[in-house]
């Protein structure tokens, strides 16, 4: 097994916090966000009481905020959004070391392509595997294409990646149960806690 490939989660693993939640306000602006807030709260409450699944909550929130939004509006704000990302130094250092010895670095995240492709390019990832969104020309329809890229979907998408090799040494970075399926296919994994510390081969559950 000479080939090494790194698959890393993004939110809470490479960067601090949840970029998707921040994106809802950042790209919508206060007026649009406040108009959508009542329905967003209903979705959040439904999710909290397990009446709404995680994937359904994602679909609803995305539709509420992004339906009808022009992609150009998002593109104009991407660099400012990138500058809001707080990278975990220890994670960045470890991944940079792996990149320096020739590893391909692929980000695998439930966050959407409307900003993740840009983030992947800015952070120097070799490939971006993320939740895909539907566009009608230059306008977002508010719908997702396929499944939310989380849990087992992450592994399904990894196996379709041009860098996937079942005989390679697979190194995974993650911070939640949404990454557990990736841990299972790895030969080496690192759990990242809320402070950005790395725990090799150990999860808190």
Can you offer a commentary on this structure?
The protein is an alpha/beta fold and 205 residues long. The protein has seven helices and seven strands; from the N terminus they run βααααβαββαβαββ. The protein has one domain: Rossmann fold, CATH 3.40.50. Helix content is 44%, strand content 22%. α1 crosses α2 and α3 packs parallel to α5.
Shape: globular
Q: Helix-strand pattern, N to C? A: EHHHHEHEEHEHEE
What's the CATH first level?
A: Alpha Beta
Q: How many DSSP E strands?
A: 7
Strand neighbour order, sheet with most strands = 4-3-2-1-5-6-7
Please count the helical segments: 7
User: In CATH, what is the homologous superfamily?
Assistant: HAD superfamily/HAD-like
| Percent of residues in β-strands | 15-25%
Under CATH, the topology is which?
Rossmann fold
Mean pLDDT: 97
Assigned CATH architecture: 3-Layer(aba) Sandwich
Quote the distance from N terminus to C terminus.
Answer: 29 Å
